[in-house]
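Lines hold sequence, tokenised fold; shown next:
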Amino acid sequence: MAKVTFTQNIQRHVTCRDTEAAGRSVREVLDNLFAGNPRARSYVLDDQAALRKHMAIYIDGELLRDRVQLSDPVTDTGDIYVFQALSGG
């Protein structure tokens, strides 16, 4: 199963503990992870189930390419990091 890690700034707003989830794509992993945590799902994904603009995901150190379908492949030993993008001056 892939390991999913959420940054501390996300965890300040919604409970989403680091965990493992099964799946061959980012979509499958997140669907399995969020099945029991709809609040975290709505924080990370928009109402069309695409990645929100203020979020970023890295898979094994590579930036997610498909922000809409979340079809990027994931291995059983993959690491997925979910970040909240920060901006400001």
Notes: The two ends are 39 Å apart (CA to CA). The chain is about 20% helix and 25% strand. The chain has a mean pLDDT of 94. Strands lie at 2-6, 19-21, 55-59, 62-63, 79-84.
